[in-house]
Amino acid sequence: MDLPPGRYQLRIAARDSMKATLGTIIYDLDVPDFYKESIGLSGLTLTSLGGASMLTARPDDQLKEVLPAPPVAARTFAQNDELALFAEIYDNSGNAPHKVDIVTSVLTDEGRVLFKNEEVRDSSELQGAKGGFGYTARVPLSDIPPGSYVLNVEARSRLGQNTTVTRQVQFTIVSAERGPQR
Questions:
Q1: Contact, 118 vs 96, CB < 8 A?
Q2: Which helix (H) or strand (E) holds 62?
Q3: d(CA 149, CA 75)
Q4: Is the full-model pTM beyond 0.70?
């Protein structure tokens, strides 16, 4: 669904006519204007290599090009799995040549970094226009012990005031023997 920037409330209802049961959900939704600020970051789309075994009704053609498996809503992964993520970084800094630093990390509750990947993108990729960098990263889980963590993705423009944007997703790693709970 395409919506202009703003605040919305999504209301969904479902009814099972055979059992006469009804369920509803209300979700507050904020659609940001990714082109208003000098730098912006979309939400994170996650999957795992184990996610490739999940049945998907209609995989998204664009995400099939950037992720090794369909996106998953699961946030529990086996230790022998590998996370894959996709995000878009919107760089609206203008024509001045500059770099954008992108850091993906896995953090403990105490803020300790257990995994870190750093990448630099160049504004020349956008050919002088406002626009977005497609960003993908892989996070191997084999060296991270079972537990709860935060996946943190941060983008920082080196132009002007070094504006930084961040997105975080909580997730859990379980031992490979136990496997993820779906």
A1: no
A2: helix 61-64
A3: 10
A4: yes
Q: Which two tokens stand for residue 45?
A: 């789309």
What's the alpha-carbon Rg for the chain, to the nearest Å?
19
pLDDT tens-digit map of 159-175 = 877 789 999 999 999 99
Among the listed residues 101, 138, 136, the one whose alpha carbon sits nearest the alpha carbon of residue 120:
101
Q: Which two tokens stand for residue 102?
A: 């992108």
Task: Report residue 148 CA to chain centroid gap.
Answer: 17
The tokens for 64 are 């099939």
pLDDT in tens, 68-124: 888 888 899 999 999 999 999 988 876 778 889 999 999 999 999 999 999 999 888
Q: In 3-state terms, what secondary structure has residue 25?
A: strand
Consecutive H or E run containing 93: none
What residues contact residue 130 under an 8 Å CB cut-off, 6+ apart?
Answer: 35, 90, 91, 92, 94
Q: Who contacts 84 (Cβ-Cβ below 8 Å, separation ≥6)?
A: 46, 47, 48, 49, 67, 68, 69, 136, 137, 138, 139
Amino acid at 180: P
Contacts of 105 (CB under 8 A, 6+ apart): 113, 114, 115, 116, 117, 151, 152, 154
